[in-house]
Every structure is written in C-alpha cells, then in structure tokens.
Amino acid sequence: MTTPVALTIAGSDSSGGAGIQADLKTFAALGVFGASAITALTAQNTRGVTGIHAVPADFVTAQIDAVFSDLDVGAVKIGMVAQAASIDAIAAALSRWAPRHVVLDPVMVATSGDRLLASEAVEALRKNLIPLATVITPNLPEAAALLDEPIATSEAEIESQGRGLLALGCRAVLIKGGHGEGAESTDYLVDSTRTIALAAPRIATRNTHGTGCSLSSAVAAGLARGEDLERAVRNAKTWISAAIGAADRFTVGHGHGPIHHFHSFY
Prior knowledge:
alpha/beta; six-stranded mixed beta sheet; three-stranded antiparallel beta sheet
C-alpha cells in the first residue's frame, strides 16, 4: 500500500505550536507522512512573534524540488510565505511539479495579532498562488483583507466574499468562522455550485495557538489520503474541534497555548 505524503510549505514556529511544527504534527496524527519546505524562521512563543528571518527564495525552491523529485506528494499545504519573492518561487515550483491538490492558508496575522505577511506580498498571493489552489482557507479577517472589504458579519456577506475569492481563480474557499460570535463556530465551504455551512460548538479555551495552520493541514492530509474535498473538510473540522477541546490538558506557555494534536493517542 502506498504511503500518503503531504508537503507543508510554511514558516517555522520556535515554540512548536503553529507553522511547520503544527503541520507535521497534524499529518502524523492523521496517518500521513509529512515533508516540509521552510519559508521563514520565526522567533515566537505563545505570547507573540519577536522576530522573522525569511529564507532566501532560491532555497525555498531547492527544498520544494528536493521533495518532489523523490516523494510522491499527494497534497501540498501552503502557510506563511513571508515575502513576495517566496510567493513567486513557490508558484513557479508548483506550476512545474503540478501537485494533485494545493491547500492555501493565507496566513497574514498570527493568533497574537502579529503581522506575518508584508503588505506588498498580498497582491502576489492573490495573483500567483490563489489560482493554483484546490481550496483556500482564510478566516473572516483574512477573507476581508484579500478582497479589501470590511469583515463579513452575516451568512450572506460570508457567502458573497466566498464568491469574490473564487473569482480570484481557486476551485473552492473554506471561510473559517472562529473569529465570529455565538455559541457555534460555523465554517463555510464555497465552490462554483454550492455553499455548505459546517457548524461546531464554540469551545471556551485560550489555547488556540496554531488552530488555523492545523485545520488547513488536516484538510491537506485528507486529500493526500484520497478523500474528496467535502469529506476532507468535514473530517478536518471534526478533528480540529477535538484537538481544541483537549487543549486544556496542556499547560504550555503563558499566552495562547497550543491545541492537542495527539488527543486521540494520549
């Protein structure tokens, strides 16, 4: 039996809760072999980001080429890309290697509020990476920022922004509702034919570091295992809800602690 493989292209989190580290934990928890191409080193912990050191674009390319030339990659997850040059390098590499699935998490701001994507890189993200994506996974503020619109506050506005993001060239959009209000956190999966609302109880915890990274990685893991997009998203939503629900088993750091990627194991 072929081992499912997923590649994460993202930034490293020195505290281990988000970024590359969260992605690899997610892949492992879901039975997928994880490879990585690191776009940036960050000095961060549960309280915030204190430094970002971008990896040169040509070395990002070298990492991606090394993985694809040897491993049978079933899905790619893209997280923090840091700078326009890296976006261009990633887009060129993915156009060459043509992976079956690309999950793009347009990481712009960390859970702590620290900005992770230079403003000039946002247009490169729109023009060069979004059209390559099977699905993009913005939260409500990121969806609004990509469209230069106010943050959506109703289901109709969320669906409208989903359609606006589809017009940028991706095949589907998963708008995450974690920043919303109410007893339920509802994500919206929008494609060319329908909108699916995926609701889950909102969990009261401050340990949410790496939630967005991990959800998009869980979707990529499902796609790498051969699931269709709706099934991959539904399974990822179930898994991330359980990981958030188990987060308070951890006492890690003094800010927004990590979720529990391996909640089903210990």
